[in-house]
Specification:
The structure is a homodimer of 545-residue chains. In chain A, a hairpin with an 8-residue loop joins strand 1 and strand 2. The first copy, chain A, has three domains: 275 residues, Ribonuclease Z/Hydroxyacylglutathione hydrolase-like (Metallo-beta-lactamase, Chain A, 4-Layer Sandwich); 149 residues, Metallo-hydrolase/oxidoreductase (Rossmann fold, 3-Layer(aba) Sandwich); 91 residues, Ubiquitin-like (UB roll). Chain A is globular, with a radius of gyration of 29 Å. The first copy, chain A, contains 15 helices and 25 strands. Chain A has 545 residues and is of the alpha/beta class. In chain A, helix 5 crosses helix 11, helix 6 runs parallel beside helix 7 and helix 14 packs antiparallel against helix 15.
């Protein structure tokens, strides 16, 4: 068992299972960049290990259609062409993604139903129905010669789901009776006591809000991928006689895919184009939009900032945030709320969201149904994995059988023992524009330095052989100080460069790298003493014969 | 009434009150930079209006000793030398700050007691006892010919404070009987229903944690300024026979000031130097440290990252976060918690903090005691101010008398009416190193651009008159791609520059700015098409005769 991502972090879920000549891979997600990854668009897993063992790799089995489980597939499938197995909606969303990329050759894809098994080398994989914040989520029972591993994927226990049925607890129990070697269970909400509320409770809140605000336009921001949430907004819209407008590219994509595949029940004519909005009074309209995380370029943020071309916020608009801010997004969300409030909108955030992940009691339920020998918590930062291990110990699993792994660990599991037998490459690979992996730590360090301090460029033209100054020093700065206000500073900088240069000539220093260092160091000293600042200093020497 | 900061934002509190020839200023705080203020250390208020009316300015009256109320004083007092009035601990903390700066000449300072009034021009200012997360916090009754304005400062109602007495509710009531023209009341927690818990409840939690972890070292991270919290840690330490070590520069400063002035009751010999730690077993020690917000350079973060020179985290250490993450700091706090957990520490965050700000029911209490004619909410983002105005309306204040101001608004208040009569400069001024206000929007925009995309510098030496290329193009990049991996890219870039230059020569373009634009545009096009990236491109032309 080799997790190539998803441990010690939220996101970029991918785990390889290997036995003899067979490897199957569960999920292939991306993660969003950390704050210090300046300019990076997304992070994908390092699949070097899979490439080196490509003959063994039988395929990807995917638990559900969220970015942190499918988002890296287009990148990875460009490098290794292996089949992909997933439930219907999940596959629909994967196909959406693949359309945006050019694969060297088509990839085999197979839609799997709940309860169905597929044989991949010496593994048999069974898809088990679960509940999550997207339909068609599956847990996996991985049958191997070493025993059965149950991987929950992201899940919760919802006794009244909006779409589909309750998680197949009977099957978990049956597997438990057979004997489960290891349980790999979602840790996202392991710090939360009690049970996660049913998705349906949000529908009740929507109904109340629609009833209380019958005179105003309603705008609901939520995750594009939360198809059940969208369903409930449409349900309330129908009940209260409103037309629905969908805004935001990802929202339009997901809704059309889900509706096409029958995962969204859309009454005829309820959805209208944005252009038709003007034909309806505000109180007959609901907008469903992206931007619930305060993302600067998302539709709701543009509306709030008066930058949206087609929708402007009017006093009286009722804006519902049907989401919770993901850690790191709190301030952006707050900014959008302030902007909306300033334009006279009423903003509602209470009881408008429930999590898609199991809380403590639900996790305990899965342990007591499956009774695994080993507990290997997945999907979480270290603090979550550790808390999860402690919870598993509370469920009677011996401490030595609760295993907190790091990405890249190679764990050998048998009926007798669990042993860490190695380590493979599992750092995330950064994607910036079309570049995959061409931005590394040096580049990021430079971006960091530039972002905090700006830069000063000093250009000199020297005569070859004599090192006489033919032109310059020219000084150009960016992101340092506003130049017109600091001409004196640039003048002083110039004389420091002259002096440094003269010292070099006097001492017969002709090595350019030494001249550059001298210039850099003297200017750097001066600026630190004078301003307590530390810009990047780049001396460039041109040579003319 | 002219708020120069503190409205539509949390932080940088400062409000001027003017009548005839007198101006008094309440508070003089700083704010911490927003995410987009790259490289900025802090933000201070723009006091242009005070400088222009310096003859009228009678002094600063300060409500309490937190950074967002006193932090800008050293900067502002360098520009306008006026007296400062504050309670004892507040003044002690102000003096700490002033010591770190060089003022052109000494500033008059006067310590004021609760219940005492000072006369400043035609104003009389009375300091009223309140509760907050620092001792010696005061509300102000501002008596003016136009009427009485009550400014709460930051406050809560604590019936069992750790130090000092409960907020002087009787005085608020008395003022209400006399007739309060306007109430300016803290909005920080106006979204929170109910009452804020007493500071003393945290002491109980500490006792429980000390009892439960009697075999381990305890480390408590909290705000340096929360003197009452520190008192409670010391109380528990004494009760459970532990020595106390204080770590972090600001923590040491505040504790010594508070102890000196009698705001901290420190049993003899309980505090030891860090060097003495080795003489005690872990279970006999408590460390009180900075870093509760996950700040990269703070003591706890350095311990967690194994970068602290004197303390390393050991398995079994019990680390208490006695704080809540300030919005924007959640991810950093989480990172530190993960690092601590990985080193085997037990991290406790539950029930270890209470807010220092009044919740809804406490705010209502102040309204019903003071019964102001006008409600002017302060200390909050727009959403808070607006919610506060609605709460005031719920308390019977007519809608037109609840006034949500922006920083810079000039509000004229009389017994008859409240009128917005103007606007003064009130943008924050950014401080970067020793530079105050020399980093503006252009510099920040460049830093942003550099941080996300890096830069490419192209240097050419041209012959004067003929524009013949004498040297170059040399291409230097930083923060763009790791150069050794992309030599082909730099080669291609060079040929694009050559081509652009040739086009210019062919078309007899001799204007250097046009040549630069041609180079920049063609390279920019190429990189966007090839990589979907947009680095800053800086062509520099040197001229040699």
């Amino acid at each position: 068992m080799i997790p190539l991502g998803g441990l010690e972090q939220i996101g970029m879920n991918i785990t390889a299972f290997e036995y003899d000549d067979s490897i199957v891979v569960v999920d292939c997600g991306l993660s969003f960049p950390e704050d210090e990854m300046l300019g990076i668009d997304l992070v994908i897993p390092d699949i070097t290990y899979l490439k080196e063992n490509i003959d063994k790799v039988k395929g990807f089995v995917i638990t559900h259609g969220h970015e942190d489980h499918i988002g890296a597939l287009p990148y990875v499938l460009k490098e290794i062409n292996v089949p992909v197995y997933a439930t219907k909606l999940t596959m629909g969303l994967i196909e959406n993604k693949l359309k945006e990329h050019v694969l060297p050759k088509p990839v085999k894809r197979k839609v799997v139903k709940y309860g169905q098994s597929i044989n991949l080398g010496c593994f048999r994989i069974e898809f088990i129905r679960t509940n999550h914040s997207i339909s068609d989520a599956a847990a996996l029972a991985i049958f191997s010669p070493a025993g059965i591993v149950v991987h929950t994927g992201d899940f919760k226990v919802d006794y009244t789901p909006v779409n589909g049925e309750t998680i197949d607890l009977q099957r978990f129990a049956e597997l438990g009776k057979k004997g489960v070697l290891a349980l790999m269970c979602d840790s996202t909400n392991v710090m939360k006591p009690g049970y996660t509320m049913s998705e349906r409770t949000v529908g009740k809140t929507f109904d109340n809000i629609f009833a209380d605000n019958e005179k105003h336009r309603i705008i609901v921001a939520t995750f594009a991928s939360n198809v059940d949430r969208v369903q409930q907004i449409i349900n309330s819209a129908e009940k209260y006689g409103r037309k629905v407008v969908v805004e935001g590219r990802s929202m339009v994509n997901v809704i059309s895919t889900a509706a096409e595949l029958g995962y969204l029940d859309v009454p005829k004519n309820i959805i209208i184009e944005m252009e038709q909005m003007k034909n309806y009074p505000p109180e007959k309209l609901v907008l469903i939009t992206t931007g619930s995380q305060g993302e600067a370029m998302a539709a709701l943020s543009r509306m709030a900032a008066n930058l949206h071309r087609k929708v402007s916020i009017e006093p009286g608009d009722t804006v519902i945030f049907s989401s919770r801010p993901i850690p790191g997004n709190e301030k952006n969300v707050s900014k959008v709320i302030n902007e909306l409030a300033q334009k006279g909108a009423k903003v509602i955030v209470q009881d408008t969201h429930v999590s898609g992940h199991a809380s403590q009691e639900e996790i305990k339920l899965i342990y007591s149904l499956t009774r695994p020998k080993y507990a290997i918590p997945v999907h979480g930062e270290y603090q979550h994995l550790k808390a999860h291990a402690e919870l598993a110990q509370g469920m009677g699993i011996p401490k030595e059988n609760t295993i907190v792994l790091s990405s890249g660990d190679v764990l050998e599991l048998t009926q007798e023992r669990a042993t860490l037998i190695g380590k493979v490459q599992a750092q995330g690979i950064m994607v910036d524009g079309l570049g995959v992996g061409d931005v590394g730590n040096i580049v990021l360090r430079d971006r960091q330095h530039l972002s905090e301090n700006g830069l000063i460029i000093i250009v000199l033209t020297l005569e070859k052989y004599t090192n006489q100054l033919l032109a310059g020093p020219d000084i150009v700065s960016r992101g340092f100080v506003y130049v017109r206000e600091s001409e004196y500073l640039m003048d002083e900088a110039k004389s420091i460069v002259y002096a440094a240069l003269e010292r070099c000539l006097d001492n017969k220093v002709s090595d350019w790298s030494k001249i550059k260092t001298e210039i850099k160091d003297s200017l750097s000293d001066y600026l630190w003493k004078k301003m307590k600042r530390n810009p990047m200093i780049l001396p460039i020497i041109m040579e003319v014969e």
